[in-house]
Amino acid sequence: MKKIGYSAAMALAAFFIGTALTVSCGNENGKENGKENVDVGDGDENEDTGGKADYAKGADLGWLSEMEHDGVKFKDTDGNAADVLESLQKIGMNAVRLRVWVDPPGGWSGKEDVVSLAERAAALGLDIMIDFHYSDFFADPGKQDIPASWAGDSDDLDAMARHVSEHTTEVLNALKAKNITPKWVQIGNETTNGMLWDCGRLWTDKEDIPDGRKHFATLLNAGYAAAKSVFPSVITIAHIDNAYDYRDWWFKQVREAGGKFDMIALSHYPQTNSELSWKEMNAQAIENIGRLGKEFGCKVMVSEIGTKSSDQTLAAQITGEFIREAGKLDAFAGVFYWEPEVYGGWKPAVYEEKGWGSYDMGAYTSDGRPGKALTELFK
């Protein structure tokens, strides 16, 4: 990638630094906006709420509208036909997470779809997280594909930062026009190895990319500044995978490169590492939440969790033990179950086209009711 400047995007981001919340991650001196950071990672129970933590109990429901379009039927825990949002709220859900793609297949998880789902969530008084992937499809540690409409600017960092800014602003203004104010905005999804490859990539299989972290910070800050320009009080989030793996170095390096974020987010799938038991993965994730919160002086969200759905009792044990321990941490901001509403072998149309199997970590029963993993998680 050719060397290019990024002063314009950095200047825009710098303008909004003054809007950072008191929950913002601190700097090396332990201060943000002239205020001492609160110690949020000591592992003590939340004294202000009498031991009952105040945190998000959420679900990522990005596939919901497509499932409804396909005629999938849902029930509440009593077996009665029910709206998914209403039935999950009934058992304790207080927040939803909605992903945004730039020009997605079929329009699912595009701007209009997200606004429609957000309207339904807002009508119920649920808190909302908007999860920007900055891609036309899923972005994760293994792929961070540039949207097709941005591909012509793949080696121009300033242009890519403008795309990030404009897309973020456009989606959030569409929500604002409907009087919807998200509580959180996630700038990129599982950006462990950066975003918008190769423009904002951090390393290859062989080595670190020169200036990769500075380039990633520029893109991160473009999203940060755009989010703050529409909703000055929104909590911006930097998100990586594998909560069981303590990677404070990632957040240190991003911050040292000038990257801005108010909150840390992690993904946690405690049955996906063959070398660790789910109990070990839960324990390590909980320890890491406390450590990261204390080290960076901000809250830590588990913005994705999922368990194998074949054994409802085991799934409930996994989520129950996790939330009981994580909920004791002052650093803990909450948890979102990823696509719990999937059941019965359903898969999106694009999966059918690609010949992929269905998602196997849904948390609904075979007859379309919220399963035990959710009733434990949302208690």
Could you characterize what this model shows?
This protein is of the alpha/beta class. It has a single domain, classed as Alpha-Beta Barrel (TIM Barrel), CATH 3.20.20. The protein contains eleven helices and twelve strands. Strands 3-4-5-6-9-10-11-12 form an eight-stranded parallel β-barrel. The protein has a two-stranded antiparallel ribbon with strand order 1-2. It starts with 6 loop residues before the first helix and ends with a helix. Residues 1-23 and 27-53 have low confidence and may be disordered.
Class by SSE composition: alpha/beta
Number of domains: 1
Strand fraction equals 5-15%
Radius of gyration: 20 Å
User: What would the principal axes of the Cα set say about the shape?
Assistant: globular
- Beginning-to-end CA distance, first to last residue: 49 Å
- The CATH architecture classification is Alpha-Beta Barrel
How is the CATH topology named? Answer: TIM Barrel
Strand order of the largest sheet: 3-4-5-6-9-10-11-12
User: What does the average pLDDT come to?
Assistant: 90
The CATH homologous superfamily is called Glycosidases
Summarize the structure.
The chain has 379 residues and is of the alpha/beta class. The chain has helices spanning 7-15, 64-69, 84-90, 111-123, 157-177, 212-230, 248-256, 278-296, 312-326, 349-354, 372-377; strands at residues 31-32, 35-36, 56-60, 95-100, 127-132, 184-187, 194-195, 200-201, 235-240, 263-268, 300-305, 332-338. It has a single domain (45-377), classed as TIM Barrel (Alpha-Beta Barrel), CATH 3.20.20.
